[in-house]
């Protein structure tokens, strides 16, 4: 056997006995790491588990039947693992290449193979020489323009047994000098957000690695996952991902100072754990530190200050604990001697060492929780007097010369009162009078800097309750004027300022306790900070949908407010901004929103799901001038809505996830009528707690639309796929398992294989420690099934996502709105359905909705978020390169059908532009007529088959599609004669004859018929080819044939019928048609066949129910009024009955009843009988049969 050290190998054992006796296997000899295992599994086996070190050992096993014994020996060879030389960290500029040689050895002389186990897509690792004992490989790094950041890469080396060792190194990708910000600069945002850790509460800035760029050091004060992390500065004003330099519970605050005089920044940290102490870490000059040295301070050590209190030129350290402040004097080598304790109050929260009165001695200022601030006056020898209270409570304190008098002033932040208080200093120290300034809702931390570069100190103040920073511009005398603010991450706890991007303006960094992030806010030249467009929407915007509602070529936005129960419409402006122009009420608590042209007027309409109203609101757009009023469709607990043409008729249909009753949930499908209304819903029950999000796309190969939804059973999350039949119905849903909690699903082709994939936002809710969420990507198989999920990290509590090619590299990217981080995570696509490390852009408070659209018409996809807690929408403008223009695709719809005279609705809504550009539409209808617009109506004047063409253009490129329109002359109807008019004699009979007419297959409504247009057509049978009806016989609607379809009576006069059938001779079946006009502009046509008795015939007669069993009818024509006699004879010629003997009978068809009786009222026997009719025109005879 051959096995690697520290690996496990197995070999099955086989033994037989010729006598059929039981065989027992056992170890006879061998190393201790070799065992024979019996009684476990189907057969005995050898287990080998060697520890470190190469060797060859012999082993022997035996088989026995307790009487005889057989032994076999074998050799175990233990091979050693390869040894991989640790790769060095690399720094690479964007759009360049860099290489590093890899080296590994194998003590056994085996060839080795190098590969990448983990790392970014732009890192390739290959084997250059597999060797036999010594091998080499190559790391090849090719970062693109937007790949700025710090990336961990793991190299793996394997031998011929596939045993491997790994090593991890870091690659820092930076920009070229003067270059942009890469992926972090792709959008203009309020701030850039980086993950900081658990509970970031403090921050300081300094050049820790001496590269000329400012680095950030952040304390994460969580009890279980606390640490101090360094963020190394990158050109452009941002930072690489964090590197922990000190781990342990509850680090509260930190300060930098050169404690040993080597001109390298050292670190002092206040640790509030195990009694409380100050940890001192000496810097190496590369951003790393030597092991810490701890100095006890006392319980609740929460604040620290650094300064030379004894004038020896070396910075000392003061740590505040519960009941005293401990001052530790520096010996000059970074070692601190015996402490000096100053009595103080409980619960210190902030502390500063500053020479307030410029006497050369530092004062010690301490702020306490819910207590007055105290000032200890320094003597310059390490001793202090006091304290002197300052009559103002504070959450933080900052010191600086605010009025340019050369003395330090004090700024205190009071969150309970919503103000900052300023105490001006002088030669005797701080004055007793204070000035108060409003500074937001809950001012916490402050920093002093000249933000607007006017030479006068300004203030920046955090507001934890509103997740923002307020800027107050100084007037140079100690007075301040608020100048607005901007957003940060959740719960900003600390704030620092410096020129991070070396542009001469002071920038801001905040540590955000609630979201576990730092926010980098780069200043503009005028001292403002917001890079994103922020626009008022409504009080609580939750979701939005983009569309060009007024068809002006600019993208607009409709925003649903779930608390105010309204939709706000914001129209786009030429500068990329948004202006709220109208609002319309919805049902209670609208959240899901969709847009589409429901009534085919060319203007996008709106649909919202109203969770608390148990309804869906349909809101029509009136040519962009106004919206509504709404029409509510009842749906219980609607959680998601979608608009799509599910049955291919060119009309948008509505899909809603909701409930049918208290116990049943699923999807409601409502087919659109094309006028903004919908047919009755069909219900698709789904076993779940309800669909919280849905997407409509084609997931298989049948070209029909399918539906996917996110659901759960109360314990786990699932996705359910319903494949469409193309008629608005769906197959039973198939479920796929999803772990954790999921919010939204989108469907698009993420790996560009022509198959639709899925992306879900998800998170693990584990308060109070922030936990980043994730996007799960499931690649489609093209048959309605999907692969296993692959997760990519996002920000905290992701709520919504969008997909587009944001950086114009031809690969789909993802953008995710993180509600509890006040950020959007951008994940640039690597191709193949994978994505790079997230970059977080700051937006407004609690972004719960996100859309991707070209808001300013520059060809680049921007991002818009709905900030639910801020009452705003944020537009992140894309600063990247616009993608090359591609030709649009025309889709003329169809084939169409219709009736001459009736408008035919055509739709080009299936047309698309790869860049989402606004399209123009030009139609040709095949009859010489033309039109423009996406959904024209055209009326054909005649029947036939016409070729329809559609040309679309994005302004520079175009596309063309053709289809057909088949137009019939009239809508079909059904006509029949009543019992009284089964035979029509020409020129005789009743004054009018009525024909019953009804629509065939509901092709029209009876109420649409125009009575004055009804005609009876029979070409070639008389003097005229058509005659007009004289009006309906009865205004009532009948159903004489009892087929469930109502008909009307079209009645025609005797003289008109005589002219229509004047050429008919004898008894003839004549095909005719009843036609007429409809109020819709169409016509109807109802064909039938009439038995006509033509002009000149006087001997017409017929017997109904022949043979006669009990009763029958003899019908004959009496051409002129006069006497009539009807007689019945048997086969022998004997008269058996005189049926009628009238002195005068009117002209026309006469019905005579036959009862089968003789003149004596006796029943006539079965047989053949003859009838004779005598009138003024002569004698008519015929025969009939009686059957008993």
UniProtKB/TrEMBL annotation:
Q: Matching PROSITE patterns, A to Z?
A: PKD
| ATP-binding recorded as keyword | no
Instruction: Enumerate the Pfam families for this protein.
Output: FG-GAP_3, PKD_4
Name the InterPro entries on file.
FG-GAP, Ig-like_fold, Int_alpha_beta-p, Integrin_alpha_N, PKD/Chitinase_dom, PKD_dom, PKD_dom_sf, Secre_tail
Q: Which superkingdom does the taxonomy of this entry point to? A: Bacteria
Keyword tags: Glycoprotein, Repeat, Signal
Q: Where is the PKD domain?
A: 887-974
Which SUPFAM superfamilies does the protein's record reference? Integrin alpha N-terminal domain (SSF69318), PKD domain (SSF49299)
* CDD domains from the UniProt entry: PKD
Name of protein: PKD domain-containing protein
- Which source organism? Eiseniibacteriota bacterium
């Amino acid at each position: 056997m051959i096995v690697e050290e520290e690996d496990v190998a197995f070999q099955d054992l086989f033994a037989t006995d010729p006598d059929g006796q039981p065989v027992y296997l056992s170890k006879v000899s061998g190393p201790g790491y070799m065992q024979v295992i019996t009684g476990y599994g189907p057969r005995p086996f050898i287990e080998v588990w060697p520890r470190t070190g190469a060797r060859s050992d012999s082993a022997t096993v035996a088989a026995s039947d307790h009487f005889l014994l057989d032994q076999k020996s074998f050799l175990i060879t233990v091979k050693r693992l390869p040894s991989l030389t640790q790769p060095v960290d690399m720094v690479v500029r964007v759009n360049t290449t860099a290489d590093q040689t890899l080296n590994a050895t194998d003590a056994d002389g085996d060839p080795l193979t190098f590969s990448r186990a983990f790392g970014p897509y732009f890192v390739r690792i290959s084997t250059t020489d597999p060797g036999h004992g010594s091998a080499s490989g190559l790391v090849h790094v090719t970062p693109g323009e937007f790949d700025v950041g710090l990336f961990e890469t793991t190299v793996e080396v394997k031998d011929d047994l596939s045993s491997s060792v790994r090593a991890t190194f870091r690659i820092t990708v930076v920009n070229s000098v003067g270059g942009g910000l890469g992926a972090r600069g792709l959008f203009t945002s309020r701030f850039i957000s980086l993950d900081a850790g658990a509970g970031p509460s403090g921050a300081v800035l300094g050049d820790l690695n001496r590269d000329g760029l400012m680095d950030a050091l952040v304390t994460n004060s969580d009890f279980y996952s606390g640490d101090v992390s360094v963020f190394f500065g990158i050109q452009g004003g941002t930072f690489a991902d964090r590197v922990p330099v000190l781990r342990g519970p509850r680090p509260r605050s930190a300060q930098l100072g050169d404690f040993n005089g080597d001109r390298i920044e050292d670190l002092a940290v206040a640790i509030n754990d195990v009694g409380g102490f100050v940890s001192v870490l000496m810097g190496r000059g590369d951003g790393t530190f030597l092991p810490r040295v701890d100095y006890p301070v006392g319980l609740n050590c929460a604040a620290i200050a650094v300064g030379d209190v004894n004038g020896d030129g070396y910075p000392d350290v003061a740590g505040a604990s519960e009941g005293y402040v401990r001052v530790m004097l520096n010996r000059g080598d970074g070692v601190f001697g015996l402490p000096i304790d100053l009595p103080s109050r409980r619960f210190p929260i902030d502390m500063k060492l500053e020479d307030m009165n410029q006497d050369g001695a530092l004062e010690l200022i301490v702020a306490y929780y819910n207590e007055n601030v105290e000032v200890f006056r320094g003597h310059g020898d390490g001793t202090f007097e006091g304290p002197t209270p300052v009559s103002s409570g504070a959450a933080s304190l900052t010191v600086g010369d605010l009025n340019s008098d050369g003395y330090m002033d004090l700024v205190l932040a009071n969150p309970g009162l919503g103000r900052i208080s300023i105490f001006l200093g002088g030669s005797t120290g701080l004055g007793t009078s204070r000035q108060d300034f409003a500074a937001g809702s809950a001012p916490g931390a402050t920093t002093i800097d000249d933000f607007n570069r006017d030479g006068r100190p300004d203030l920046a103040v955090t507001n934890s309750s509103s997740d923002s920073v307020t800027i107050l511009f100084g007037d140079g005398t100690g007075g301040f004027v608020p100048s607005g603010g901007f957003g940060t991450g959740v719960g900003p706890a600390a704030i620092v300022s410096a020129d991070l991007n070396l542009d001469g303006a002071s920038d801001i960094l905040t540590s955000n306790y609630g979201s576990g992030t730092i926010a980098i806010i780069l200043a503009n030249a005028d001292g403002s900070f917001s890079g994103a467009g922020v626009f008022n929407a409504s009080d609580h915007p939750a979701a939005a949908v983009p569309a060009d509602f007024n068809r002006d070529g600019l993208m607009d936005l409709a925003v649903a407010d779930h608390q105010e129960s309204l939709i706000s419409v914001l129209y786009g402006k030429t500068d990329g901004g948004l202006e709220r122009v109208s609002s319309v009420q919805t049902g209670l608590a609208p959240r899901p929103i969709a847009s589409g042209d429901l009534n085919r007027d060319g203007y996008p309409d709106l649909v919202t799901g109203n969770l608390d109203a148990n309804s869906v609101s349909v809101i029509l757009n009136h040519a962009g001038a106004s919206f509504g009023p709404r029409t509510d469709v009842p749906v219980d607990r609607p959680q998601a809505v979608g608009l799509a043409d599910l049955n291919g008729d060119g009309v948008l249909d509505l899909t809603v996830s909701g409930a049918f009753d208290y116990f049943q949930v699923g999807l409601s499908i409502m087919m659109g009528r094309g006028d903004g209304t919908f047919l009755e819903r069909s219900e698709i029950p789904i076993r779940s707690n309800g669909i919280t999000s849905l997407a409509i796309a084609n997931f298989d190969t049948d070209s029909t639309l399918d539906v996917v939804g996110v659901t759960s059973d109360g314990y786990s999350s699932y996705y359910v796929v319903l494949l469409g039949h193309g008629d608005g119905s769906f197959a039973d849903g198939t479920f796929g398992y999803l772990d954790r909690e999921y919010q939204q699903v989108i469907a698009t082709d993420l790996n560009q294989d022509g198959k639709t994939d899925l992306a879900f936002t998800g998170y693990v809710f584990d308060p109070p420690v922030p936990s980043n969420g994730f996007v799960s990507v499931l690649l489609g198989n093209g048959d309605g099934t999907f692969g296993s999920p692959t997760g990519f990290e996002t920000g905290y509590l992701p709520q919504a996502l969008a997909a587009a090619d944001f950086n114009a590299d031809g690969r789909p990217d993802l953008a995710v709105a993180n509600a509890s981080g006040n950020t959007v995570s951008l994940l640039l696509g690597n191709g193949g359905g994978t994505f790079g490390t997230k970059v977080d852009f700051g937006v407004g408070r609690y972004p719960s909705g996100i859309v991707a659209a070209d808001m300013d018409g520059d060809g680049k996809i921007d991002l818009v978020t709905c900030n639910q807690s801020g009452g705003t929408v944020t537009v992140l403008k894309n600063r990247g390169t616009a993608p090359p223009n591609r030709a649009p695709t025309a889709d003329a719809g169809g084939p169409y059908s219709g009736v001459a005279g009736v408008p035919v609705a055509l739709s080009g809504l299936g047309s698309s532009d790869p860049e989402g550009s606004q399209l123009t539409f030009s139609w040709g209808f095949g009859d010489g007529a033309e039109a423009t617009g996406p959904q024209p109506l055209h009326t054909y004047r005649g029947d036939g088959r016409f070729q329809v063409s559609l040309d679309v253009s994005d302004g520079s490129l175009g596309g063309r599609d053709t289809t057909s329109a088949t137009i019939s002359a009239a809508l079909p109807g059904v006509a029949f004669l009543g019992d009284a008019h089964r035979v029509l004699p020409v020129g005789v009979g009743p004054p009018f004859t009525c024909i019953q007419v009804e629509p065939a297959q509901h092709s029209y409504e009876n109420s649409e018929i125009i009575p004055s247009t009804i005609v009876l057509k029979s070409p070639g049978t008389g003097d005229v080819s058509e005659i007009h009806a004289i009006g309906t016989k009865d205004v009532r609607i009948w159903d004489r044939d009892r087929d469930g379809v109502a008909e009307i009576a079209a009645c025609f006069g005797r003289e008109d019928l005589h002219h229509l059938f004047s050429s008919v001779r004898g008894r003839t079946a004549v095909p005719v048609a009843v036609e007429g006009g409809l109020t819709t502009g169409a016509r109807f046509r109802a064909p039938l066949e009439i038995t006509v008795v033509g002009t000149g015939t006087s001997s017409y007669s017929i017997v109904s129910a022949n043979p006669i069993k009990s009763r029958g009818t003899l019908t004959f024509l009496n051409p002129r009024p006069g006497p009539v006699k009807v007689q019945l004879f048997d086969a022998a010629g004997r008269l058996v009955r005189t049926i009628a003997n009238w002195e005068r009978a009117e002209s026309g068809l006469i019905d005579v009843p036959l009862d089968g009786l003789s003149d004596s009222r006796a029943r006539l026997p079965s047989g053949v009988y003859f009838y004779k009719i005598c009138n003024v025109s002569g004698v008519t005879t015929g025969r009939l049969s009686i059957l008993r």
